[in-house]
Amino acid sequence: MAKEFRDFLSVLEQQGELIRVKEEIDLREVSARTAASSKALWFERVSGYDMGVVSGILGSRARMAASLECDHREMGKEFHRRLANPIPPVMVSTGRVKEVIKVGDAIDLTALPVPLVSMLDGGPYITSAIGVAKDPDYGRNVGCYRFMIRSDKETGVDLIGASDLKLFYDRAFKQGKPLPLAIAIGVHPSLLMGAAHMAASGQDEYELAGALAGEAVRLVKCETVDLEVPADAEIVIEGELLPIGWTEDEGRFGDFTGFVGPIKFNPVFRVTAITHRKDAVFYALHMPDEVDYLIAPPLEGSGWQALSVAGVKATAVYAPAAAGCNLHLYASIRKRPGEGKNALMALMSLKRVKHVVVTDDDIDIFDPESMERALAYRVRPTRDIVIVDGARGSHLDPSTQLQVTKGALAPLTAKWGVDATIPEGSDISEYDPIDYPFKASDPAPTQAMATPANTADLAEAIAALLVKPLHFYDVLAHFGHTPQRQIVQAWGLLRQHNRLDREQATGRYILK
Questions:
Q1: pLDDT digits (tens, 9 = 90+) for 378-390
Q2: Is the pTM of this model over 0.70?
Q3: Which of left, alpha, beta for 444 (phi over 0: left; psi -120 to 50: alpha)?
């Protein structure tokens, strides 16, 4: 059986990451309560609605990783690995999403418990939907889009940024035709990730979702449009994008950046059918954190792929949440000469990525302090910072300073990368990290011989050890039951007799 939305909710519940809220709540409370919670929340009873609401299920790297059954540090690598084996979807005659079918006058978007996410939003937004559309030349596309409730039968949709849906709509609009569209709410995260992945046009995202889930996605035909939707979704909304162009106000909206975007002018989605489960639960994807973490595996997976194609051995790839898991990308690599810059160029080519940092594999790129040290001590700004102007950016990045007008935008920005790997030709010993001796976890000393009776005898015993190069620590460890003061006195005696020499590269002691 295909993986369903409810399966993932059960996994989170078992892991203690999802809390059921039993008391009846007002829909207006959903966003703030989700933002204040460290766990996902399932509001079982919402005043005035027949459906419950679940929110925050992808609101952490740990919860996102649970959908791929891996550690959060391995999400991108696991995403990339699974995509290598796409699984085509299968058609079925019916599914749970067909238990209730509403057409004509029965259609009422206001019956769905769609919360207001941000104080400055233009209205309630459906934030968790995957949208399905077709084009005669490009085939089927599944993507993630936002839908602002306009009335009981219409929503706005954001088609400003580059997407296949925008391409399909533009082609239909030029012919004066509506574009059929269906959106599914409450699907397994594998479908959301497949839809969020910026795959090449013509790639069927249902196949990618099958790869991520490890089993085929079950599809059913829509009631009023010639499209296929997940049979096990909680809710499906069918309709068409009207051929009116970018003419109706849409927004503002609190987006994945953590900022509230401007009013835009966009097409309108007119609903022709709503189908859902009898016991449907509405998934209110919480902004911005759930979008950020949803984007992380696809972007990190693209990073792994880009580095692999470039012939660079990666050890970790990380899209930090502070940049929406979208604009910044960090990678640690096992570097050969010149590969710091090669890795930068490969990662900077990815869509929307604006800032890249590449480090050696001894740096923990998930630890901000470790990253700061790499930037502080491995970067020569005039040599190791690469800037490319006039590159493709994101229309949601306010620094692009685009004036929002009617029609599509083409945001351009500068990209910059930092090679925070140890510069070629450096004395590697200068990057030896501090490690503290004689930690409580170290094994107890096993001194095989008794402490010599006097300082001169101890000095000779130390000299006998120096037939091989040793650090002073090694001497202290060898004579683990001898007081350090006696060892330092004997050491001083060896110095007085000019018997000690050093390896310049390592600092270890040897006898002259």
A1: 999 999 999 998 8
A2: yes
A3: beta
